[in-house]
Amino acid sequence: MLHNKDILVAGGGVAGLMAAMSFASIGYDVICVDPSPPIVEQNDMRADLRSTAFLMPAVEMMRQIGLWDRLAPHAAELRVMRLCDAGGVENEIREQVDFTATEIGHERFGWNIPNRALRQTMIAHAETFPTLDLRMGRAVRDLLPRTGAARVTLDDGTRIEAKLVIAADGRDSLIRELLDIPVRTTRYGQKGIVFAVRHALPHNGVSTELHRTGGPFTLVPLPDQDGVHRSAVVWMDTGPNIAELMKLDDAPFSAAATERSCGILGPLQIEGARGCWPIISQQASALTGPRTALIAEAAHVMPPIGAQGLNISLADIRALLDAAGRHGLGSEAMLDDYNRARRHDITLRERGVELLNRAALTEVQPLRDLRRAGLHLIGTLGPVRAAALRRGMGLA
Ligand SMILES: Cc1cc2nc3c(=O)[nH]c(=O)nc-3n(C[C@H](O)[C@H](O)[C@H](O)COP(=O)(O)OP(=O)(O)OC[C@H]3O[C@@H](n4cnc5c(N)ncnc54)[C@H](O)[C@@H]3O)c2cc1C
């Protein structure tokens, strides 16, 4: 049997669920499919141990679909973004720049939420939309674009005809492959370990990115639990160094993390499991195909620096909503509009993040000193700094 829908969203990750709810909230008939089960236990291999820092425009989007109130109890406020250089001979902070949200007239930059709580809460909220059919545990298997609609086959044989297919099926997107859209991938020889830590000192809403060699070590606030201070960590380094760190038991791993953090929050104690991610940049050569729009990591992947990844993905969804308001759903005009709106911004942000990552990677002392000088310069240039902040937050 053939089911007719306005929109099929392939992928129920954070981006796919946001897209599905945003379109369903304005009356579109949407189906969202994802092969992973709705609840994944913390010690399950498939558990997502990352956290996501949402900047304020993203929070505003979540408010509009009534999601924010459910998420707020899991969120920690981000008031200060601190960049530190510890690239000298000794492992100590030699340059520090603080960016505060109040500089650009905001109380906070955004909020940080653990991905597991995020996904579970989003799924529970998605189930309340009458025009959203959520099929967890089901994958897209095939796609056949036709003139008025695309025909999609799921792995249980269900066939769906949709005016628009939104590919939010991640960095290895099957939809992208079925449409023969090539990708350009840059590998940096880096990996990132993600984990949560308890610590003695409060973070006071400060997110800290520490640069030494091999990549940044980033501490992002999590809410206190039973009076215990907690943060999420992304520790980026070269592949071989990360492999050695992953072999360590919790106690020596916690000691190594404390040392790498220059002790800024006191001794760190790892909580729960560690996840390991390859760090890449990837850009699809086209953001659209017939009756199809690629969003989020199906379209662009970047190193986790400056909380850009998912926040850029939410800008994709805003652009799709705008384009759907101006043109027929899934029409060539709508997809061209989407492509025009997003292409330039994605390329610009990718280049910025890539530059920061290459600066973070450097092993060579004179280049490490240059990075320190660059940081110092950013810290002292008032108007440039405010413009960079507004742009980083997605406000300009
Ligand atoms: C270590 C790390 C830290 C990060 N921190 C931040 C941060 O602080 N702030 C930020 O903005 N961004 C951050 N990012 C980036 C952010 O996590 C990603 O941009 C975001 O998770 C991408 O979401 P997505 O929905 O595109 O992909 P995914 O989360 O990978 O979701 C894709 C979904 O598609 C499903 N799928 C796969 N194949 C199929 C199929 N055939 N049919 C249907 N569904 C399918 C998968 O099961 C999956 O659920 C970070 C990234 C990393 C690696």
UniProtKB/TrEMBL annotation:
Q: What is this protein's name?
A: FAD-binding protein
What are the protein's GO molecular function terms?
FAD binding; monooxygenase activity; oxidoreductase activity, acting on paired donors, with incorporation or reduction of molecular oxygen
GO biological process assignments: ubiquinone biosynthetic process
Keyword tags: FAD, Flavoprotein, Monooxygenase, Oxidoreductase
Instruction: List the signal peptide residues.
Output: none
A Pfam family cross-referenced in the UniProt record is: FAD_binding_3
Required cofactors, per record?
FAD
- Annotated pathway, please? Cofactor biosynthesis; ubiquinone biosynthesis
By sequence similarity, the record places it as follows:
Belongs to the UbiH/COQ6 family.
User: Which InterPro entries did the record assign?
Assistant: FAD-bd (IPR002938), FAD/NAD-bd_sf (IPR036188), UbiH/COQ6 (IPR010971), UbiH/COQ6_monooxygenase (IPR051205)
Residue stretches making up the FAD-binding domain: 6-344
